[in-house]
Design brief:
alpha/beta, TIM Barrel, eight-stranded parallel β-barrel, three-stranded mixed sheet, 40% helix, globular, binds 5-hydroxymethyl-3,4-dihydroxypiperidine
């Protein structure tokens, strides 16, 4: 491979997954039900009636999957803990079988020379907590703190990089406003209250993790961020872009880094704005060791008076490349986004905790040729490198995803993996993009 662009020596190469999307074993090891079990078993919610009951059967096949990580040359693996494996009924005594499962996983990763990056919450809230109001109930914040404390005590010897939440925007708004995700709510005030409690629980979990921390341990949060551009230069479209940016990006970045919600958004949400109690913002603004950025695409928006919660609708210009999710391939957006976040929020360290693409892969004579995914990753890495050259403290990159997996409301119809999963047999086949990524991770370089 022509190793034209060398990344910094300490740059971390990884891949990411999430518990409900890969584990299966939904009734094993004392695991309780999560909101995603309930949601996926509700007719009409998931494409094809798919569920995460078996998923990639990673609950049983994790040793083989670590071997695959080795073949890909991963230095780090980002995965999430299934909260209902640890607290099957949401509170009380932790389930030792669940903790032991993750202890073995962490020990084996370390033995293979792979650094675990552990996400506490990647959307699988114990159903028992949802029955008490879920994230709309302030008590869930304390339950999350307890959960964080338990994990830090059980896994703290081996885990030194913690991510409190994955994509709180998705949890709050897709779960409670559009109803596309569990628990399937459709109410703006609830969605906003949930967003505030998620951020508050980030502060609470960070404190709990730090109370048990070893020297050098690091705690961050992962946001899904997108550059937002107006569809035209009209004042209406520019205002739509400002609001959409407030809704997607600033609503989370501002409290985390500046200790306040954006004033224009508080005014926009008006009576729907959340109940924010005295001291909450101080707890949310706890200093972060890093910010995780999940980047897939940009948003181009036009003014749309009937859209909620902001009067903005996304447009998809013709003549651009789109992934199977309908997301525009726009690598330049990664460069713009990293630069903006660093400049406006003075981030000390950044990781791309997810980037990748779904394309319709086919297995042919035991091989999966996926040139579109390879070039997607390649082009984004070139933009990431440009950001580093410009002084952005970008420390690592995680492909979404290690394996094809349960893509939430889309079920198994969208494949994001570096590794193809043949679901009926659970056979794993490293895709051509995975082989290529292995050369990147080994050489710490991408072709120019
Ligand atoms: O599969 C998801 C993941 O769980 C969170 N970030 C986006 C991915 C692709 O949609």
């Amino acid at each position: 491979m022509p190793s034209d662009i060398l990344f910094p020596e300490d740059f971390v190469w990884g891949a990411a997954t999430a518990a409900y999307q890969i584990e299966g074993g939904h009734e094993e090891g004392g695991r309780g039900p999560s909101i995603w079990d309930t949601f996926s078993h509700t007719p009409g919610k998931i494409n094809n009636g798919d569920t995460g009951d078996v998923a990639c059967d990673h609950y049983h096949r994790w040793r083989d999957d670590i071997a695959l990580m080795g073949e890909l040359g991963l230095q780090a693996y980002r995965f999430s803990i299934a909260w209902p494996r640890i607290f099957p009924t949401g509170s009380g005594r932790p389930n030792t079988e669940g903790l032991d499962y993750y202890k073995r996983l962490v020990e084996s990763l370390l033995a293979a020379g792979i650094e675990p990056f552990v996400t506490l919450y990647h959307w699988d809230l114990p159903q028992a907590l949802q029955d008490r109001g879920g994230w709309a109930n302030r008590d869930t914040v304390s339950r999350c703190g307890e959960y964080a404390h338990t994990l830090a005590r059980a896994l703290g010897d081996g885990v030194h990089n913690w991510i409190t939440h994955n994509e709180p925007w998705v949890v709050a708004f897709l779960g409670n406003l559009t109803g596309e995700h569990a628990p399937g709510g459709r109410d703006l005030a609830t969605a906003l209250q949930v967003s505030h409690h998620l951020l508050l629980s980030h502060g609470e979990a960070t404190e709990a993790l730090r109370a048990e921390a070893r020297e050098g341990d690091r705690v961050g949060i992962t946001l899904n961020l997108q550059p937002v551009e107006p569809a035209s230069d009209s004042a209406a479209d520019r205002d739509a872009a400002r609001l959409y940016d407030g809704y997607l990006n600033r609503w989370f970045l501002d409290p985390l880094f500046r200790g306040s919600y954006p004033q224009d958004m508080l005014e926009w949400y008006g009576e729907h704005a959340p109940d924010i109690r005295s001291g909450d913002l101080e707890r949310i603004t706890v200093p972060l060791d890093f910010l995780g950025v999940n980047y897939y695409t940009r948003a181009i928006v036009r003014h749309a008076s009937t859209s909620v919660p902001v009067q903005a609708a996304e447009v998809k210009p013709d003549g651009r490349k789109y992934t199977e999710m309908g997301w525009e391939v726009y690598p330049r957006g990664l460069y713009d986004l990293l630069g903006r976040v660093h400049a406006e929020y003075s981030t000390s360290a950044l990781y791309i905790t997810e980037n990748g693409a779904a394309f319709p892969d086919t297995l042919h004579e035991g091989k999966v040729e996926d040139p579109q995914r390879r070039s997607y990753i390649h082009e984004h890495l070139l933009e990431a490198y440009r950001a580093i050259e410009d002084g952005v403290p970008l420390k690592g990159y995680f492909v979404w995803s290690l394996l094809d997996n349960f893509e939430w409301a889309h079920g198994y119809s969208k494949r994001f993996g570096l590794v193809y999963v043949d679901y009926p047999t659970q056979t794993r086949i490293i895709k051509a993009s995975g082989r290529w990524y292995a050369s990147v991770t080994r050489e710490n370089a991408v072709p120019a």
